[in-house]
Specification:
Strand content: 5-15%
Mean pLDDT: 89
Oligomer: single chain
Distance between the termini: 12 Å
Helix content: 55-70%
Largest sheet: 5 strands, mixed
Shape: elongated
Order of helices and strands: HHHEHEHEHEHHEHEEHHHHHH
Structural class: alpha/beta
Number of strands: 7
Strand order of the largest sheet: 2-1-3-4-5
């Protein structure tokens, strides 16, 4: 490496001589090992077995059956099936919500349920007709999916609903088999499983929506833009003010140190973050929507939301870096990315992850941001689809970042903790 005068630097120790120093190995080895272990536990711990962790996945249960009870029974079949599903203590996977058909559609459109199981109005009458000559069609139970809640969540809801409908069909089949004593072998085989189960999309989303995953990846882009942009700006300002060296390949520069306290430095970084985030968010939308054709509506709202979301992350990064110094980038990585991804609920439903991640989801930024993006992209920007909560949490997060960052740097300034000025070797 050459210094600014172009004079070759003197030759120092060789790497082979330093490899034998245990203290040189200690900190990098311990930190790298701990990071690898923590990342493995945190990321894999959230997705290893969603079925085992699944608890109370919201699914609508609609009983529209208006038929009269069969002979010798007090309730029609729709009511019996509903009661059996709701009172089933053998499975806690589903959190069934008994709703009308209109209420269920509204909850699907608001992203409040992952799917629905619908028993039609003529269900009991259709079943009763199977043992007579009046049968015109097999009784049908419909499973509705909600791909806007993510492919995995919608799939889990569809599987749970289909299993419940299949169990109901077998139960009805036993009743019909006992009553149809004169049926031949073919009829008995048909009556043993008489209900047809159909699957339909309850709330359609566009073909260019990544099967419900574009909301997650778009949110990840916003978080990365705020995280990486914040760190790049922080390092760039430190280099420009002479508090850090700039080294690119064999080129090394060191600018004169500018006299500035920590508070003014943080203010400078945050103002620059607010300005540069305008560009990064615009380019994210240009690439995602205009170039790649991602399905998106409410474009002005999406841009404003994207800017505020990325800015909140960027300001948080600046605050953490100012408070923690050299390890700030590592701390902010854990806050915004390492802990945020598995607790976001964007790929694996929060009802299917361990309790630790559900706890983190109450305040981890990525969960709050992804709910807002999902509401805008898939659920017509409805406030009750998560957008209202997302805006609220963006405001709270921004306020916390500003208060924490400036409180810390003003404390450092009052105590006289000046930033170290790099000195030539």
């Amino acid at each position: 490496m050459d210094d600014d005068s172009g004079t070759p630097a003197p030759t120092g120790l060789r790497a082979t001589a330093l490899l034998g120093r245990p203290k040189l190995w200690l900190i990098p080895t311990v930190l790298t090992g701990l990071l690898a272990l923590l990342l493995s536990l945190l990321y894999m711990g959230g997705i290893v077995n969603p079925n085992r962790e699944l608890r109370d996945l919201p699914i609508a249960l609609v009983n529209s059956d208006t038929g009269k009870p069969l002979t010798g029974q007090q309730q029609n079949l729709g009511t019996q099936i509903t009661h059996s599903i709701v009172t089933n203590s053998g499975s806690r996977a589903a959190g069934w919500r008994q709703l009308t058909r209109a209420q269920a559609q509204d909850e699907l459109d608001a992203g409040k349920v992952y799917g629905a199981l619908v028993i039609p109005a003529d269900f009991t009458n259709s079943v009763a007709a199977l043992t007579t000559t009046n049968a015109t069609a097999r009784p049908t139970i419909t499973v509705l999916t909600n791909p806007g809640k993510g492919s995995l969540g919608s799939s889990l809801a569809g599987k749970i609903s289909s299993t419940a409908a299949q169990q109901a069909s077998l139960t009805i089949g036993k009743q019909l088999g006992a009553a149809a004593t004169k049926a031949d072998a073919t009829q008995k085989l048909f009556l043993a499983d008489p209900v047809r189960i159909t699957t339909q999309v309850g709330h359609p989303i566009g073909d260019n929506s990544g099967i419900g995953l574009t909301a997650f990846y778009y949110t990840l882009l916003l978080v990365l833009a705020g995280f990486m942009g914040g760190n790049v700006i922080s390092n760039g300002v430190d280099t420009g003010l002479g508090y850090a060296d700039n080294e690119i390949g064999p080129w090394h520069t060191r600018r004169p140190t500018v006299p500035i306290d920590r508070t003014q430095t943080l203010l400078l970084k945050m103002v620059m973050t607010a300005g540069i985030t305008l560009l990064s968010v615009s380019l994210i939308m240009l690439a995602s929507v205009s170039i790649l054709g991602m399905d998106a509506t409410h474009i002005p709202l999406l841009w404003i939301y994207s800017y505020c979301a990325a800015l909140a992350v960027g300001l948080g990064v600046q605050a953490i870096n100012a408070a923690f110094g050299g390890i700030g980038q590592l701390v902010s990585m854990f806050v915004f990315i390492v802990l945020g991804l598995p607790s976001s609920g964007a790929t694996v439903p929060l009802q299917a992850v361990p309790g630790f991640y559900r706890f983190l989801s109450h305040f981890e930024p990525m969960r709050q941001l992804s709910d807002g993006v999902r509401a805008i992209l898939y659920f017509d920007a409805r406030g009750d689809a998560g957008l209202t909560r997302a805006w609220t949490m963006i405001g709270i997060g921004t306020a916390i970042g500003l208060l924490f960052g400036f409180a810390m740097v003003q404390y450092y300034d009052r105590k006289g903790h000046k930033r170290l000025t790099p000195q030539p070797a």
